[in-house]
Structure to design on (346 residues):
């Protein structure tokens, strides 16, 4: 079925993001009322729009790709496969001669996802004080959403994308995590543990690895984040741009419910009535090159923002990668309740 990825050209960006987040195929087909394809929107188009600080209310017709590549319904499988590979596409629309949509083909239809050797480090040592009393006798990553521990949901998301090597950093109530996941055999992956004697922070715990242990960029993520994020795209972007450190960011629009007065030299220059401020928030997901991890001093507390700020002072370029996918920090009670209502529904 492809009807779930059909959208009208006047659809707003925020609505398109919701549709793309729910869609199995990470592409939207922009069509008119007669089902004629007018353009395509991929996750890359969405991320580029966010980087350019496009308003979330912008019409999708203003960012769609009008010069899309497609196949005809009469094309054989070999022709479709060659177009996908030759143009480095993840998806390709199938049209008739009138450019009416007849289907869609994915690169996944022609090969199985290869496994990735990159390590995934999941920070699972926090106290979860904001979730008390739920965390009085349970580590925060082990609280459940619809009967499944949050940490298991995170793990399965990575596994679905081809990751197999995991390291959990643990501290508070760590025995409950280790007893549940063991070595990862039940999920056909490898799980190791870094056990802190005292909290070292999201960056400080990385210092416990031996130098040169990692050979490829490492994903580091908080153990209380539920997201449908495409980690493969993160790695592809990181390698393509020769990044050393990539921070995932989530864009938010904050509407001020009052007229904002701009003052210069003790005079009112302008009044903006209920302006919308745009900002990027740290999403708690990072991709880090091994040489930067090797520089960390052992057993010193260091949170990730402080580590990033230090690298910036040392003239290390820190890149960012915008997320449009759903993202919930269950470390807050309101967000945890929201996750229970919505996250596993689609």
């Amino acid at each position: 079925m492809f009807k779930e990825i059909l959208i009208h050209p006047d659809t707003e960006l925020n609505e398109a993001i919701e549709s793309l987040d729910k869609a199995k195929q990470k592409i939207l087909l922009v069509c008119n009322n007669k089902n004629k394809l007018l353009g395509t929107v991929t996750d890359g188009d969405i991320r580029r729009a966010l980087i350019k600080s496009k308003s979330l209310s912008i019409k999708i017709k203003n960012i769609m790709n009008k010069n899309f590549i497609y196949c005809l319904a009469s094309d054989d499988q070999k022709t479709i496969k060659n177009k996908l590979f030759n143009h480095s596409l993840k998806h390709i629309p199938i049209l008739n001669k009138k450019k009416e949509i007849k289907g869609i083909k994915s690169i996944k239809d022609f090969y199985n996802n290869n496994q990735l050797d990159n390590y995934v480090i999941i920070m699972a040592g926090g106290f979860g004080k904001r979730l008390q009393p739920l965390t009085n006798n349970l580590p925060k990553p082990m609280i459940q959403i619809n009967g499944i521990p949050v940490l298991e949901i995170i793990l399965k998301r990575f596994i679905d994308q081809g990751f197999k090597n995991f390291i959990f950093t643990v501290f508070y109530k760590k025995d409950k995590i280790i007893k549940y996941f063991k070595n990862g055999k039940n999920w056909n992956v490898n799980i190791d543990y870094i056990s802190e004697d005292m909290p070292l922070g999201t960056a400080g715990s990385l210092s416990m690895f031996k130098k040169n242990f990692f050979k490829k960029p490492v994903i580091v993520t908080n153990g209380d984040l539920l997201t449908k994020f495409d980690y493969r795209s993160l790695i592809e972007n990181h390698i393509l741009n020769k990044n050393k450190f990539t921070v995932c960011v989530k864009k938010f629009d904050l509407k001020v419910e009052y007229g904002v007065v701009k003052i210069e030299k003790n005079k009112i220059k302008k009044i903006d009535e209920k302006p919308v401020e745009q900002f990027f928030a740290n999403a708690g997901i990072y991709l880090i090159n091994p040489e930067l991890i090797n520089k960390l001093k052992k057993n010193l507390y260091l949170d990730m923002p402080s580590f990033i700020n230090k690298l910036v002072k040392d003239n290390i370029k820190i890149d960012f990668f915008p997320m449009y996918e759903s993202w919930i920090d269950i470390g807050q009670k309101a967000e945890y309740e929201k996750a229970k209502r919505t996250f596993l529904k689609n």
